[in-house]
């Protein structure tokens, strides 16, 4: 009987954990069922794996396409796309080394396996270098002094958060920003809730609040799923490749590639489709751009440019929090990290939550120990009486 109950509970928990997917423009179909027959998937950048080992002086068929990729994300400037050749030249090597630095790879200047794997990963469509200023791996050092009686302790931490050129930000009345969904997308409530959850993560650490409005055209932030060329000069490329892009403040446009297999609910890592992309993870990242953050070279940060398919990454890290608080200040009700760097700056928000829970756990153990000691002393006293 007990086994039956256990089995029932197990089945119930599994059924509530089912993954629901979403694919524009048919919001009703469940991609986890629809695409079961797909045994392979391809990214628009799979082709780049043919360039393994390619280095300066070599000529490889199609290398001009990889140069276009580097141009798109800000690594090659001052050369018109029409002049790109298949030659691995000096300017390409220079761009490659900056890319390798930004993504914490060995700066070999060669298209090695690690670099090519990174290049092929699905990513955000916003450039890593804007107007020629590379700030992704800037290594800003912040210092802060704390006085403890007579002694002064100095803390240093390296931050990699970045802003758009000119550091644009919102200055909303009542610190409130509105967001609306493109009416033609006809999004189900589950998808809208995913965006609401993503906004909440930024509201927690800033004085800002985000409110949904039905008036799309006048909303501060306008969210829409689009496919291919959609009129802003940044066409989407189908499954994987670029997943979404957003514009710096106070533009407010937030576009997502309608051709992705978006996972709305459940654990993306157990999705049956290899190309499944977690919607909330991408939304949290793009909202960072909408609020004024650029890309960061801290791999664990939300503002890192790439995300693997079937991965959920939604917790803001110290690098994200420090960056956004430089723009907007902190949330007086937030009891996590603040702008003041501490010796635990590398510890994440999540880790802090875990360690604070650990603290509570230890307290309980300590209380139990006192109760146990009291009980032993009491028994001993009764025996002696
Ligand atoms: Zn981005
Ligand atoms: Zn767009």
Automatic annotation (TrEMBL):
GO terms for cellular component: extracellular matrix. Ca(2+) 1 binds at residue 260. Zn(2+) 2 binds at residues 124, 285, 289, 295, 303. The keyword Disulfide bond does not apply. CDD domains: ZnMc_MMP. GO terms for biological process: collagen catabolic process; extracellular matrix organization; proteolysis. Its cofactor is Ca(2+); Zn(2+). Ca(2+) 3 binds at residues 237-238, 257, 260. Belongs to the peptidase M10A family. Matrix metalloproteinases (MMPs) subfamily. This is Peptidase metallopeptidase domain-containing protein. It comes from Papaver atlanticum.
């Amino acid at each position: 009987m007990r086994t039956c109950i256990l089995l029932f509970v197990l089945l119930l928990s599994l059924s509530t954990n089912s993954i629901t997917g979403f694919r524009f423009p048919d919001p009703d179909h469940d991609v986890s069922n629809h695409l079961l027959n797909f045994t392979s998937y391809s990214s628009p950048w799979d082709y780049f794996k043919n360039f393994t080992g390619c280095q300066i002086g070599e000529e490889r068929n199609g290398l001009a396409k990889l140069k276009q990729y580097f141009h798109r994300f800000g690594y090659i400037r001052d050369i018109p796309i029409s002049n790109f050749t298949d030659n691995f030249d000096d300017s390409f090597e220079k761009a490659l080394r900056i890319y390798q630095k930004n993504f914490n790879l060995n700066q070999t200047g060669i298209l090695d396996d690690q670099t090519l794997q990174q290049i092929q990963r699905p990513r955000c469509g916003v450039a890593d270098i804007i107007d020629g200023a590379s700030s992704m791996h800037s290594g800003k050092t912040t210092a802060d002094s704390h006085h403890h009686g007579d002694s002064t302790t100095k803390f240093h931490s390296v931050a990699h958060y970045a802003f758009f050129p000119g550091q644009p930000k919102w200055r909303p009345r009542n610190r409130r920003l509105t967001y609306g969904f493109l009416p033609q997308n006809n999004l189900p409530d589950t998808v809208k809730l995913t965006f609401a959850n993503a906004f909440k993560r930024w509201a927690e650490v800033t004085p800002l609040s985000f409110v949904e409005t039905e008036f799309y055209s006048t909303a501060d932030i306008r969210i829409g799923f689009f496919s291919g060329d959609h009129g802003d000069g940044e066409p989407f490329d189908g499954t994987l490749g670029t997943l979404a892009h957003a514009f710096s403040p106070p533009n407010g446009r937030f576009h997502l590639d309608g051709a992705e297999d978006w996972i709305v609910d459940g654990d993306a890592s157990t999705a049956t489709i290899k190309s499944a992309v977690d919607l909330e993870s991408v939304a949290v990242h793009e909202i960072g751009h909408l609020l004024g953050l650029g890309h960061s070279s801290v791999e664990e940060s939300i503002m890192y440019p790439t995300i693997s398919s079937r991965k959920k990454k939604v917790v803001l890290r110290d690098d994200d929090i420090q960056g956004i608080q430089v723009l907007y200040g902190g949330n007086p009700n937030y009891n996590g990290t603040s702008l003041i760097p501490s010796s635990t700056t590398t510890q994440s928000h999540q880790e802090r939550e875990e360690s604070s829970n650990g603290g509570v756990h230890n307290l309980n153990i300590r209380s139990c120990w006192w109760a146990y000691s009291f009980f032993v002393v009491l028994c001993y006293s009764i025996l002696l009486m």
